[in-house]
Amino acid sequence: xxxxxxxxxxxxxxxxxxxxxxxxxxxxxxxxxxxxxxxxxxxxxxxxxxxxxxxxxxxxxxxxxxxxxxxxxxxxxxxxxxxxxxxxxxxx
Length: 92
Fold this sequence. Notes:
This protein has helices spanning about 5-20, 25-35, 50-60, 75-90. The chain is an all-alpha fold. Helix 1 (about 5-20) packs across helix 4 (about 75-90). The protein is globular and about 35 Å long. The protein starts with 5 loop residues before the first helix and ends with a helix.
């Protein structure tokens, strides 16, 4: 199984969050914070994280070589964004 790249994960993330308005704000904030420096200069011209950072995050979340089960990615992302949203609101 292959580790998904940033563009594929971006599409999965957008699909997972599109129908959940409560996650829109935290999703944009999180994507902006994780975006690689000068992302607008490289195709696909999206605020994607650096490949090395993304690989590190996948390994720390899923272990091994960082390859998640494809059906878990969206579920895990929504759960994590929900946690970020509630953590931010309680930490103020």
